[in-house]
Amino acid sequence: MGDRFDSDRVGSADCSSTVAVLTPQTTCPDFVFDALTEERRRTICRVLDEEGARDLGDLAMDVATAEHTADGGVTNHEWEAVYTSLYHQQVPKLASLDVVAFEPNSATVAPGERFAAVVAALDAVDTALDGRLASRGIDG
Amino acid sequence: MLSTRHWTDGSLPGESMDDPEAPSERDLLVRWRGRNWTKAADRQFDPAASGDLASAIVQALADAKRVSAGEVTEPRLYDCVDVEAVAQFVSDSRSPNSPEPDFVRFDYGESLVEVRTDGRISVFVPASDAV
User: Fold this and answer.
1) pLDDT per residue as tens digits for the range B38-70
2) Best mutation site among A36, A63, A76, A84 for testing chain B: the one with the most B CBs within 10 Å?
3) Is some CB atom of chain A closer than 8 A to the CB atom of B71?
4) C-alpha A78: how far from chain center
5) Average pLDDT in chain B
6) H or E element at residue A100
7) Mutate to test the interface with A, among B77, B81, B88, B91 (most CBs of A within 10 A)
8) Contact, B36 vs B127, CB < 8 A?
9) Nearest CA to CA, how far is A12 from chain B (Å)?
10) B113 strand-pairing partners
11) DSSP string over A43-85
12) What is the pLDDT of residues A45-97, one digit of tens each?
């Protein structure tokens, strides 16, 4: 879609700055954004980056804990809901993008072929936002 | 989480309300893809209270099979429907002025799942199997 948008604007001098802003995004493949759309998938990538391959049950506890930092403990019901979400939706989604690999027999989630690219993008976003917040703080 | 049944939600303006069983009957039986289906379970999805739609749908499927959510393993919901698209549909399509909520339906194994824009998740089984 980005390509079509760019070509629509070709020849329009007014929009040259818009095209210049958009061009860097076309170098970042769609699967990165697809993988990171939901906060729960970002948490999964963070955990796997720190812990390596993880049992799905343990991973669900890690994610549930990350989501309940404000109110403390994770109930069994909350863990089960996160586990279900990971098993039926988030892990298959990441696996379909080759970001993680899921081994059903051992119920293990491991970093996949495209895992490094996604974590690099996560880090880059964090760095960019930290920098912007910092400079805003100085300006203000 | 809301669990109250709202059988009369689907009533059309001016429709007789004398028979309280009528909306219920219509809601429990649906015809879809040339087959009759019977409702086996339903639950109310509230994004604020019960988190994500995927686990709510799986819980409804578990209710229909009288098992726990952890025992619903095949197929994976991801292989049956784009849950993110359905969640978007539910959150975007809330229409308080519409007499009836819109819905999406999809197959899960031998079951039929219906998700309405008012958050009602229903699981149907083929009527012939539900005798």
Assistant:
1) 999 999 998 777 678 999 999 999 999 999 999
2) A84
3) no
4) 22
5) 80
6) strand A100-103
7) B77
8) yes
9) 35
10) B106, B123
11) HHHHHHHHH-SEEHHHHHHHHHHHHTTTT----HHHHHHHHHH
12) 999 999 999 999 999 999 999 988 766 689 998 999 999 999 999 999 999 99
Cβ distance A89 to B79 less than 8 Å, yes or no, reads no
Q: Which residue has the higher pLDDT, A25 or B81?
A: B81
> How close A122 gets to chain B, by Cα (Å)?
21
Please, what are the domains in chain A? 29-139 (1.10.10.10)
Q: CB of B80 within 8 Å of any CB in chain A? A: no
Given pLDDT bands bounded at 50, 70 and 90, which one contains residue B6? very low
What residues does each domain of chain B span? 32-130
Q: Contact at 8 Å (CB) between A125 and A37?
A: no
pLDDT tens, A104-138? 999 999 999 999 999 999 999 988 888 776 666 55
Q: Where are the beta strands (DSSP E) in chain B?
A: 29-32, 35-44, 103-108, 111-116, 120-126
Which of B58, B79, B84 has the CB atom closest to A84's CB atom? B58
